[in-house]
Structure formats: structure tokens, C-alpha cells
Amino acid sequence: MLRNAAADLIIDKATAIAPPDWINHPEPRSFRPKSKYRTIWISDIHLGTKGCNAELLLDFLHSVECETLYLVGDIIDGWRLKKGWYWPDSHNEVVRRILKIAHKGTRVIFIVGNHDEMLRDYAGFSFGGITLAQEAIHHSADGKRLLITHGDAFDGVVLYARWLAFLGDQAYTLMLRANVWLNAIRKRLGMPYWSLSSYLKKRVKNAVQYVCAFEDAVAREAAERGVDGVVCGHIHCAEIRQIGDVTYYNDGDWVESCTALVEAFDGSISILDWSETHRANVKQRQELVVA
């Protein structure tokens, strides 16, 4: 069924069927200028779950422009959607925003992850200007070659004990629900977003050991492939660090930390923490109200 739908989309493009009207609507005016980057990497949005911070992601996507946008896996949470449908308007708006970014000329590459693995059979297809791929090689402005992969292939739990991964997903979902309730209370009190799950993860010894082992495994693969660095997601921990001759980059997630990787036009890459930006904006508005 999905393959037929994919074929229909390609036929539509070939026969030049007009895109929906909304895709050509003008951009809403903003009081702040957009930040411009050469490349942006985001992953682990988990559309279809209550833990997805779609509102913060939309705020981010409306605030930036780039030549290339990489969606580094787990954009749609097929695991969760199989168990029950959850798809609020804000998740539709994320999809619409990404499609509009592609329509306006940004090259959008979707690297498929384990939670949206139902799309892996369609790697190489393009849908609405978005190209699906298993992995990619990115050439940075300063001449470096970076392997782009979601990262689940280097996760022993996902690869060799699939039942354990699903069990962990259940526990993680419960923790994210607690995170949603906590932040609903914080919002009523005028407090900014804060991630309980991210806080706990950074303080649990086993989680820290797992993250380090994952990073080392990804870096070894990149070294064997002869690239200068690797960009991935999967573990929801934004990081940039040198591991031997390889630079390891993780773009984090939009469930816990709300982070992205951004490449400037000189080739330098940094972590953009949008939850910090959001907190700063909330503080600024509060100061203006007091003044």
C-alpha cells in the first residue's frame, strides 16, 4: 500500500500536479530575523507521541534558514503509533513546515531510524522534495567528510535484543508522560521547559556508561570508513567530542533536550540548545512585563 502511495507521489511530480495551496502561502512576519546556517541536523522528534515537543520545534523551524536540512531518524514514532493513534494538530504543523522548507529550496534528507523503520524500504525515493536514505556523506564547508547515520545500527540492545528495546521503550514512555505533566504545571506557573528525563539520564551511572560505549562504537565505524567525523542521533544526548581521529557529533532530540546541530558557512559545527533559547526568551518577556 505504501509502495503504491510512493509511486503515486512520483507520478504526481512527473505530471506536474499542483501542490496544495498552503505551501505557497507567504511566511508570517516575525519580530526577529531568522538565523542562517549552511546545514542543520535534527533527529528523534518522535511525532505521534505525547513526549514530542512540537511547539518548541515549530518555533525553531520558523526561526532558522539553511541550505541543507538533515532529518537524522526517528522523526515519526511508528512503534508508538502501532499501539494507539496520537496525532495532534501541532504534529501536522511540523510536517507541513518541513514540506514548506523543502518547497522553498532547502535540500531535505531524511535518514531513516529504528522508530520510523517502516520507511527503510523506500530509501532512495523522494516525497515532496524530501529524499529518504539509509545514511549519507556530508561535505562540510571546510572540506571534511561526515558520515550521517541515525545510530541504531550501533546499539546492541536494538540490534540483538529487540524485545528488550521495546520493554525499555515502555519504561521510557512512562517517564516522558511524567515529564509532560511536570512541564504542564511549570507552564501554568510561568516557568520555562525543563526535562526530567534528560536530568535523570545524565545522573544514572549505567546510562552514562551506555552513552560512552555507543559513542565509541559509532566513532570506530567512522574511522574504518575513512571519514573525518560522524553525525548521529538515537540516544537523545547532544554531544561534540573528539574520539581518536574522528569527531563525534550527536544532534540530540526534540523529546528531552530540544537540540540541533548547526553548521556555519565557514564549516564550524555547534550544538544549538533551543530549550535554553526558549528559557532566555521567557525570562526576557518576564523582565519586560516587570519593567
Low-confidence stretches: 1-17, 157-168
Mean pLDDT metric = 82
What's the structural domain tally?
1
Radius of gyration: 19 Å
Number of helices: 9
- CATH fold call: Purple Acid Phosphatase, chain A, domain 2
- C-alpha geometry: globular
Kindly name the structural category: alpha/beta
Q: What spatial order of strands do you see in the largest sheet?
A: 4-5-3-2-1-11-12
Query: CATH superfamily assignment?
Result: Metallo-dependent phosphatases
- Beta fraction of the residues? 15-25%
Helix and strand run: HEHEHHEEEEEHHHHEEEEEH
Structure description:
This protein has 291 residues and is α/β, with parallel strands linked by helices. It has one domain: Purple Acid Phosphatase, chain A, domain 2, CATH 3.60.21. It contains 9 helices and 12 strands. It has helices spanning 2-14, 54-61, 78-83, 89-103, 156-160, 162-188, 196-201, 205-225, 274-290, and strands spanning 35-42, 64-71, 107-111, 126-127, 130-133, 136-139, 145-148, 229-232, 239-243, 246-250, 259-263, 269-273. It has a 7-stranded mixed β-sheet with strand order 4-5-3-2-1-11-12. The chain has a 5-stranded mixed β-sheet with strand order 6-7-8-10-9, covered by helices on one side. Helix 2 (54-61) packs parallel to helix 4. It is globular and about 55 Å long. The N and C termini lie far apart (59 Å).
